[in-house]
Write a structure and sequence with these properties.
With about 350 residues, the protein is mainly alpha-helical. It has a single domain, classed as Orthogonal Bundle (Farnesyl Diphosphate Synthase). About 65% of the residues lie in helices and about 0% in strands. The longest helix has 27 residues. The radius of gyration is 19 Å and the shape is globular.
Length: about 350
């Protein structure tokens, strides 16, 4: 049902990248080359999910190698995420090991080779990280690596909570999902794809951090809203079900509460966005710096709208994909998933 529902979205729609089809084909070849996709069935499920194509919606101006990097990172995100989705009562040993290997890798300079025998998902990430860091300053690399580490540690937190039987409330769900949802690495990627860097003083300002928080929360809320059917089927945490349990809401009321929360967040984002010229003036930024900050904020705006449009149209959140979810099932893109793809 959720994909049939809409949000009030004051941000106008924008076209997807004109290089979408070419990037999709190149991404599939990359995923095969790195042994992330090893069968025709998995390739069909991957293409049906349209997970990498999120980049075409959120980076509408990117083409060529820049869009390829974004496609590869987005595809990697979902392929890695689903490795944690194993039948209940089973330990995702391979995913935990890969997570630990990735943490070790990020404590080395970009371009370092993964440990001998590292899992394909680790080798593939090393390729993405090398390309993401290329041409960027050391300061950017440090903060981007820190955000990747926070994402990986967030996945381990969620796995520990699953194992312990911890059921988060709505506030805890948002707090943990801000790490495990990978929004901060995605925003770092926006700088790399656009070939810009935000000046440190602006980067650390409360104003820009508030914009990132609003954009990130929008993405996480929309994703929980549209993945509700699959999460309910698996018994996985979701903001909607957390609200239902915490406040004894019915499903429809909880969905309405989530949409109202999203309305407030996007309104706050747009208010802060309108104040960016004042921030740039107060910090005495050069014209070039102002341009970079404006482009970065626009990339956050594209993320809010692009993620929403992608979430309503992709195969990952479709009823047919959700129908394959169950407590005893693997995640839709898990290497061991056996369910035939929907057609």
């Amino acid at each position: 049902m959720p994909q049939e529902l809409s949000f009030a979205m004051p941000i106008p729609a924008h076209p997807v990248s004109p290089d979408r089809i070419g990037a999709r084909d190149r991404n599939l070849a990359w995923a095969r080359r790195h042994q992330l996709i090893t069968s025709e069935e998995m390739a069909r499920r991957y293409l049906f999910s349209q997970v990498a194509e999120l980049s075409a919606y959120t980076f509408p101006d990117a083409v060529g190698e820049d869009l390829d990097l974004a496609f590869d990172v987005m595809g990697w995100f979902f392929l890695f995420d689903d490795q944690f989705d194993v039948p209940h009562g089973t330990v995702p040993t391979a995913a935990i090991t890969a997570c630990e290997q990735l943490i070790d890798l990020l404590h080395q300079p970009p371009g370092a080779d993964p440990a001998h025998g590292a899992a394909p998902v680790v080798v593939a990430f090393a390729d993405c990280w090398r390309r993401q860091a290329h041409g960027m300053s050391q300061r950017y690399r440090w903060r981007a690596a820190a955000n990747w580490l926070d994402y990986l540690e967030g996945n381990l937190t969620e796995e520990a909570d699953r194992r312990a039987g911890t059921r988060p409330d709505a506030e805890q769900r948002m707090h943990s999902h801000r790490s495990s949802g990978g929004v901060r690495p995605s925003f770092d990627l926006a700088e790399r794809v656009a070939h810009l860097e935000i000046p440190p003083l602006v980067w650390h300002s409360t104003h820009l951090e508030s914009l990132r928080l609003c954009a990130g929360d929008s993405i996480l809320i929309v994703n929980d809203f549209y993945s509700l059917d699959a999460d309910e089927a698996r018994g996985d945490p979701n903001l909607v079900t957390c609200l239902m349990a915490e406040y004894s809401y019915g499903r429809d009321l909880a969905l309405d509460v989530v949409r109202a929360l999203h309305d407030r967040i996007v309104d706050r984002f747009l208010t802060l966005r309108a104040q960016i010229p004042e921030l740039c003036g107060a910090l005495a930024l050069t014209q070039a710096q102002r341009t970079d900050v404006t482009r970065y904020v626009e990339s956050l705006r594209c993320w809010i709208r692009g993620n929403y449009d992608w979430s309503r149209s992709n195969g990952r959140y479709s009823p047919s994909a959700a129908a394959t979810s169950a407590p005893a099932a693997y995640g839709y893109l898990h290497p061991d998933a056996q369910a035939q793809p929907p057609s």
